[in-house]
């Protein structure tokens, strides 16, 4: 089996062949985005959106004012974001790896030096050279209360990244156990006195201690692969590159929440982020990223005034004229939220950061030093979570018709014609998602339909400048019922259930089946699915909590028994060595 050193020698030198360079620089990871099938689906979906929009905006189809406005506002948000996403996806075939990248990658290591040092089988000892200068990057692992085994996996993997580097554990949890673990593994440990600036402040503090020209950042639950530096550092041979971002890939698709949360981001990392490369608008996602220190210093460090420090830092860098690179190559594997609590807090933090940009740093403003493409892409980012509020508006439409006979559309056409217009948008979106994700992921539909309370709260946080507490996605803690984080969904489910019963009764008495009943019943079933998911999570969590308490009690009993045995042995030892005790025993025997 070929070793890493063998592959380093045997791999073809693509930069030596100038005749076929355009083909040789086209990596397999971009083939999916260049697929004619995907292009055709995107174009058909875009055509369907245009037809559906024409149907909605046709004055002849306009219904009662209130439900019509709700539908138009919600669908405008969804349609706009769908079209812009498709435009970006069609740009995803562009490969950021050019001659400069390949030229630098082929000269990252000195083969003679590796052989002289006897390090052929220890790639983490190989000195890295960029533009014929030795560089030693820093690798930062940010921690804040994650369990020790999670941190151990990540730190152990980081220490074995190919290329000589320094690994730092940035512990904002101030744990002596984490400090001892870092010492055991051989990593550098940093603990600061305060938690100001949350994760961004933690990184900025570490930058005052580490001196590398480049630094990578990993969350404690993202395990880096050995090739991380090998695949990212060569991009910095181009002097205007500020950072190189790699995807968040997950390995814990174990339940409905984790699968839904993971699949929701899969299309973004596989198709949307690569498309942003063409517009120099790929942004950082907080982990699995490597920065040029000079670029971050130029903007005063990682942005600290928002819990979405990653997007804000990217925006600041782009406004300063820096270039960013995203590669859809999996170079770290981590954990996606597994519980309703973790998912809620993650989405609340991300959405609050997006809305903060929308309300306080509008990318479309003339004040922003961005290209038009960058303005549009950041506007999409800042308003993305409005698409999570749109389902709330659509949820309200069927009850208005059921209770007040207010219809959003004046449907004089046949149900078949209506279904064709409707399918032009929604069915094509499902087909496109089916193609890009490999199958229909109902978990995505479930979470996207029931997350509106999170995004409404995030919008209010941004409007009223409420401080959003930091929460680590992979942090494990005491059991908390998922229903403590989903009261709005439960209340809406109860309302929709009653409304469905009312609509069913009206249908039974009138003999007229309405779309409002079907629409409302569908929404009720989706929310019911989320509640069942939460109930199962709660049952599992309670069982695990009982098991932990039983194990702890057993451990305490065992410890108490050992303490009693030790005390008894000590008493027996004292009795055996006490002269008075011996004399008494002797006298008694006489």
UniProtKB/TrEMBL annotation:
Its EC number is 2.4.-.-. GO terms for molecular function: glycosyltransferase activity. The keyword Repeat does not apply. It is an enzyme of class 2 (transferase). It is a multi-pass membrane protein. The chain crosses the membrane at residues 38-58, 65-90, 376-397, 418-438, 485-505, 511-532. It comes from the Bacteria. Keywords: Glycosyltransferase, Membrane, Transferase, Transmembrane, Transmembrane helix. InterPro entries: Glycosyltr_2/OpgH_subfam, Nucleotide-diphossugar_trans. It is found in: Membrane. The keyword Membrane applies. Its main location: membrane. Residues 13-32 are annotated as: Disordered. This is Glycosyltransferase. It comes from Cellulomonas xiejunii. The lineage of its organism: Bacteria, Bacillati, Actinomycetota, Actinomycetes, Micrococcales.
């Amino acid at each position: 089996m070929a070793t890493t050193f063998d592959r380093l020698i045997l791999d073809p030198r693509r930069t030596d062949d100038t005749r076929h360079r355009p083909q040789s620089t086209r990596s397999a990871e971009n083939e999916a985005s260049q697929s004619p099938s995907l292009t055709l689906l995107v174009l058909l979906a875009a055509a369907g959106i245009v037809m559906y929009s024409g149907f909605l905006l046709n004055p002849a189809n306009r219904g009662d004012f209130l439900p019509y406005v709700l539908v138009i506002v919600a669908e405008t948000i969804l349609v706009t974001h769908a079209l812009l996403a498709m435009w970006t996806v069609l740009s995803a075939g562009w490969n950021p790896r050019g001659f400069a990248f390949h030229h630098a990658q082929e000269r990252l290591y000195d083969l003679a030096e590796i052989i002289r040092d006897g390090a052929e089988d220890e790639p983490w000892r190989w000195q890295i050279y960029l533009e014929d200068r030795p560089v030693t990057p820093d690798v930062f692992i940010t921690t804040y209360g994650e369990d020790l085994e999670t941190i151990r996996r990540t730190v152990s993997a980081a220490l074995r990244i190919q290329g000589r580097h320094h690994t730092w554990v940035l512990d904002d949890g101030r744990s002596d156990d984490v400090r001892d673990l870092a010492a055991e593994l051989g990593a550098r440990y940093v603990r600061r006195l305060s938690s100001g600036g949350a994760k961004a402040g933690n990184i900025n503090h570490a930058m005052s201690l580490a001196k590398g020209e480049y630094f990578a950042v990993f969350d404690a639950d993202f395990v880096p692969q050995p090739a991380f530096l090998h695949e990212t550092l060569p991009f910095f041979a181009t002097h205007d590159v500020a950072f190189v971002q790699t995807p968040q890939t997950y390995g814990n698709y174990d339940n409905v929440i984790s699968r839904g949360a993971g699949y929701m981001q899969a299309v973004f990392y596989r198709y949307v982020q690569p498309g942003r490369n063409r517009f120099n608008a790929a942004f950082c996602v907080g982990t699995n990223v490597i920065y040029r220190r000079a670029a971050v210093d130029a903007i005063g460090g990682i942005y600290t005034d928002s819990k979405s420090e990653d997007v804000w830092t990217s925006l600041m860098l782009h406004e300063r004229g820096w270039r960013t690179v995203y590669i859809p190559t999996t170079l770290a594997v981590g954990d996606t939220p597994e519980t309703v609590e973790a998912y809620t807090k993650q989405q609340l933090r991300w959405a609050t950061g997006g809305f903060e940009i929308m309300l306080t740093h509008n990318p479309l403003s003339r004040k922003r030093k961005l290209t038009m493409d960058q303005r549009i892409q950041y506007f999409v980012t800042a308003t993305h979570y409005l698409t999570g509020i749109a389902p709330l508006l659509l949820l309200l439409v069927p009850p208005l018709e059921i209770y007040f006979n207010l219809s959003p559309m004046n449907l004089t056409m046949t149900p078949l014609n209506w279904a064709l217009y409707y399918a032009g948008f929604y069915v094509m979106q499902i087909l496109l998602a089916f193609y890009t994700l490999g199958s229909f992921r109902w978990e995505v539909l479930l979470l996207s339909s029931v997350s509106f309370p999170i995004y409404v709260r995030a919008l209010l946080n941004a409007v009223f400048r409420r401080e959003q507490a930091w929460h680590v996605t992979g942090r494990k803690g005491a059991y908390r019922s998922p229903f403590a984080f989903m009261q709005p969904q439960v209340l809406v489910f109860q309302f929709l259930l009653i409304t469905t019963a009312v609509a069913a009764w009206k249908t039974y008495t009138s003999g007229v089946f309405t779309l409002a009943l079907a629409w409302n019943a569908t929404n009720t079933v989706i929310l019911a699915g989320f509640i069942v998911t939460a109930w199962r999570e709660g049952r599992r969590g309670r069982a695990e909590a009982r098991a932990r308490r039983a194990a702890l009690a057993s451990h305490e009993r065992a410890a108490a028994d050992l303490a009693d045995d030790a005390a008894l042995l000590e008493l027996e030892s004292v009795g055996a060595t006490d002269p008075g005790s011996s004399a008494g025993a002797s006298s008694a025997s006489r």
